[in-house]
Design a protein that fits this description.
The chain has 377 residues and is of the alpha/beta class. The chain contains 16 helices and 17 strands. It has helices at residues 2-5, 39-53, 77-84, 94-99, 114-118, 121-128, 147-155, 162-175, 190-201, 213-220, 235-241, 278-288, 309-319, 330-338, 353-361, 365-372; strands at 19-23, 30-31, 34-35, 57-61, 89-91, 104-107, 133-136, 158-160, 181-185, 206-209, 248-249, 253-255, 261-263, 275-276, 293-297, 324-328, 347-349. Helix 6 crosses helix 7 (147-155), helix 8 crosses helix 15 (353-361) and helix 10 crosses helix 11 (235-241). It binds 3-phosphoglyceric acid (3PG). 3-phosphoglyceric acid (3PG) is lined by residues 25, 27, 65, 140-141, 144, 352-353.
Length: 377
């Protein structure tokens, strides 16, 4: 098993007075310098607490996704410290991190340095000088072949952190699932879902397609979706590979503006689909009762605009289902937390894109890098 081959960080590794680089995924949403979803940070705290209690000096590395303007960790530092419950020093450069004597230091957004995404060997050396050993606790970023993910394990003794390891073990279970097995895919971007769909086509007893992804499938089935976004380039492939397959379920009704319900055969020229309709939700609810394992990625509606009825109802149903339920993806996880149900599932993955790529390929660049590391301390 893959997880058994990973060098897992453990109690026998000497860390007292050592500088331990921990690659975390603190790529969290924030508004006006307030973190609006701290779930990923909370999931890394057990490792950070363990390192602190064992006398390590922690060097945190993370990226923050660039939107329009450059995003820095600096204005978020106060909030990070509140969430973590200990003080963290901000270091604007790798050199400043190297000179820091603080128990916990966080380097500036890695994407502020061109060398992170270019896999620049010089930048890798600068990062490696910050610590004595490396722990990857950023499963959700390990689908990116970035310097901090794939180059550091070549330069330092390197380990998988406990969260990283748990993600691989639990998602590995879903990869060859207990049957009957249901896959629910929503959200957008067919390109990020195709690998998972292909992997599970032969394996899943049922595959339910929702969210904006379903628009492309409905068009491929010959329905009109009005003004709803469609990935036209993907339509021929979807038609050939997935339409008419007995295990693929599509919505039979949807909600458009103002929450009006329409059958998929009655979508009008100006309509935009925002959510799944009640008949489709009921069909999905019935289907999931037969299942022993369920894997879900991507919301069923446009949740950022408040169209979360179908997604929230599904969360509620799955929370009370007897099946082993594994869920990933930021928007769905945020709703689960809002509903106070984060402890009601078999596993919640911190990965969005990383979860999908791992399920499709069975590995990630960050996993391969750890498998190739040669540890000697
Ligand atoms: C995520 O939020 O899924 C990860 O942090 C990856 O972020 P990225 O898509 O900007 O690499």
């Amino acid at each position: 098993m893959l997880s058994n081959r990973l060098p897992l960080f453990n109690d026998s590794i000497h860390v007292s007075d050592k500088r331990v680089i921990v690659r975390v995924d603190f790529n969290v949403p924030a508004e006006q310098n307030k973190i609006t979803d701290d779930y990923r940070i909370l999931r890394t705290l057990p490792l950070l607490e363990q390192l602190r209690s064992r006398g390590a000096r922690i060097m945190l590395l993370s990226h923050l996704t660039e939107k329009k303007e450059h995003r820095s960790f600096e204005p978020l530092m106060e909030n990070f410290q509140q969430v973590c419950g200990f003080s963290i020093k901000f270091a604007p450069t790798p050199l400043a991190a190297r000179q820091s004597k603080a128990p916990v230091t966080l380097l500036e957004n890695l994407r502020a340095f061109p060398g992170e995404e270019n896999k620049d060997p010089q930048f890798a050396k600068e990062l490696a000088l910050v610590g004595d050993l490396f722990i990857n606790e950023a499963f959700s970023q390990s689908h990116r072949s970035n310097t901090s993910i794939v180059e550091l394990p070549k330069l330092l003794p390197s380990y998988a952190g406990p969260l990283f390891y748990e993600e691989i073990r639990k998602l590995g279970e879903a990869s060859s699932p207990e049957k009957p097995f249901l896959l629910i895919l929503g959200g957008v971007k067919f390109a990020t879902k195709i690998g998972v769909l292909e992997h599970f086509m032969e394996v899943a007893d049922s595959i339910f397609i929702g969210g904006a992804l379903a628009n492309t499938f409905l068009v491929a089935s010959g329905f009109s979706v009005g003004e709803s976004p469609v990935e036209q380039d993907a339509v021929p492939h979807v038609r050939n590979a997935f339409i008419g397959k007995p295990n693929v379920m599509l919505p039979s009704d949807v909600r458009v503006e103002g929450n009006e319900v329409r059958s998929v055969s009655d979508i009008r020229t100006g309509d935009v689909i925002y959510d799944l309709g009640p008949v489709s939700s009921a069909a999905l609810a019935e289907k999931l009762q037969e299942m022993r394992m369920i894997l879900w990625n991507g919301p069923l509606g446009f949740v950022e605009r408040g169209y979360n009825q179908a997604t929230s109802e599904l969360i509620d149903l799955l929370a009370h289902s007897k099946a082993r339920v594994i869920i990933g993806g930021g928007d769905t996880l945020a709703l689960i937390r809002k509903q106070g149900l984060e402890d009601s599932f078999y596993y919640l993955s911190t990965g969005g894109g990383a979860m999908l790529e791992f399920l499709a390929k069975g590995t990630l660049p960050g996993i391969d890098a750890l498998l190739e590391t040669r540890n000697s301390m």
